[in-house]
Amino acid sequence: MEFIDTFEMRFPGMSHAEVAALNPSPTRNIAPPSGVTVDAPTVTAFVDGSRWIARCPFCAGAERVSFETALFFCCGCRNQAVDRAYIRVTLPAKTKREKIEGALLKRPDWRVRAWFPHESVADLEKQNKAHGVVG
Description:
Blueprint: H1 7-10, H2 16-22, E1 37-44, E2 46-48, E3 51-55, E4 62-64, E5 71-72, E6 86-90, H3 94-105, H4 121-130
Parallel strand pairs: 1-6
Antiparallel strand pairs: 2-3, 3-4, 5-6
């Protein structure tokens, strides 16, 4: 895997509603996203296993994030706590995202490509160096 996966890469041309309809869930019979967006709560994007994801604030779920919409919808609980509304995702700016991905893509094993918002790009480069990753 020579990229960091996003919602758009995993589900090209599909909306959150279409993806939610396809995903098996105990709440599958609940209607799709309402189309409304609420300002709170919000979720923060991070990288885990070479995927940009965010954790659901309502259940134990996590979903790939969309850099195009910056909206989050959980396929598990269907954001029922906010009446199936989308919630906003805090994303790194484009230049920071590119630097984060650049540092992570130097790692040959996609399973150890991880970044959390408290980490700087310099932190990632130090981790790379400590583990013998060059590039």
